Amino acid sequence: MLEKVRIVLVNTTHPGNIGGVARAMKNMGLDDLCLVSPKEFPSEVADARASGALDILENARVVSGLEEALADCQLAVGTSARERHIPWPLVNPREMASIVVPSPQKTAIVFGREDRGLTNEELQLCHHHVNIPSVEGFSSLNIAAAVQVIAYELRMEQLKLEANQKGGSDRPSWGTDWDIELADHAELERLFDHLEETLIKIEFLDPENPRQLMPRMRRLLMRAVPDKVEVNVLRGVLKAVQKKLLG
Amino acid sequence: MLEKVRIVLVNTTHPGNIGGVARAMKNMGLDDLCLVSPKEFPSEVADARASGALDILENARVVSGLEEALADCQLAVGTSARERHIPWPLVNPREMASIVVPSPQKTAIVFGREDRGLTNEELQLCHHHVNIPSVEGFSSLNIAAAVQVIAYELRMEQLKLEANQKGGSDRPSWGTDWDIELADHAELERLFDHLEETLIKIEFLDPENPRQLMPRMRRLLMRAVPDKVEVNVLRGVLKAVQKKLLG
Fold first, then answer.
1. Domain of B99?
2. Inter-chain residue contact B24 with A145, CB threshold 8 Å
């Protein structure tokens, strides 16, 4: 069940941390690691800290941008400190696991830079934000330690589900099975691009003064976790608006 | 509540691990560290990895035997791999936290050597054994990562107790407080009426053959449970579309 979970590290500075992350992942049964522009990789320091999880490092994919790392994922969770400008669905690691593990969605969990985490723009690519409830005033965990906590909660949830399945309860979360595949990251981004373009054309969005309009739109639609048909319907609406304006 | 918890490390080889443990402790609100015959301490490597948790290292007590570290404790928990010669009360980290945090007893949680953990004799000094449920075949966590998981569970339990004492959960479920009231039923219905009217005007919705378009739109937006501002923004968009078409 955890094969669908990808750990994404953005702009990691210290290769030792990448090794520590690989070890933490392997201990908890995760194996899909994606590195967005790491400062130094591959690295002997990473190999040493991985302490036997070399297969994870060897199979890690290195990409140049977060969007590429997320492209085939249907659910993205960003790790975050508490304060952010606009409220976004925020969960603790346990709640995160209860969302991620039972779902069939390809999921990315995104960790930011050692010194300053993820940017607001990066966080807005994510459906949920997860916060490890550290103490105020000393809140920044080492990145490998943060991955360890997240991976631990995923494994605890998986073990719980396995135990439940043996005992029978397998509660459906919708009235019927959701029969349509969820939209992936790339489809959602095309939708948001199309929406932004249309809002500019109808002069609702002023590109000189965009305010929080697109973040609000993203937040609203991502909360709903749209499926592929829903995204197509919305894009059909946008196309119809643009056609009317030109025609 | 966590002041009564002491972290005890037995014969740690790598000073970097001691630093990592100090950081993990401080992140989660623990501050009592006791080192049983560490190989190298104090150490600059430990200080560097502690990344700001120097106070924990400075106040750490170094002793020569585990018994001395446990002397003033009323409860001792030893971290352990699964197989042991004689059965002993074995808990997972969550169960451990639910035992330790509510109790008034001075408690030590004991972590063994990097390469081979605690001896059977050391484990038998402990009331409970705690096991982090890692995967078979790659079960040894880095010691700082193990302390992070244990300390995280202690903190989660403490936050749960605090919330219960306040008489309800006040954990924030959003990155900041959701400051805007949710839309009520009537506002949502006006939004859907406005949307339907607009979709007809742009000739996306055929009133003679509406198919499942409006139910899909409803389902999508209601899943997101929009607030009043979000509903107003959406209605602003619809108004802008209609104005463009007429103007």
1. 2-166
2. yes
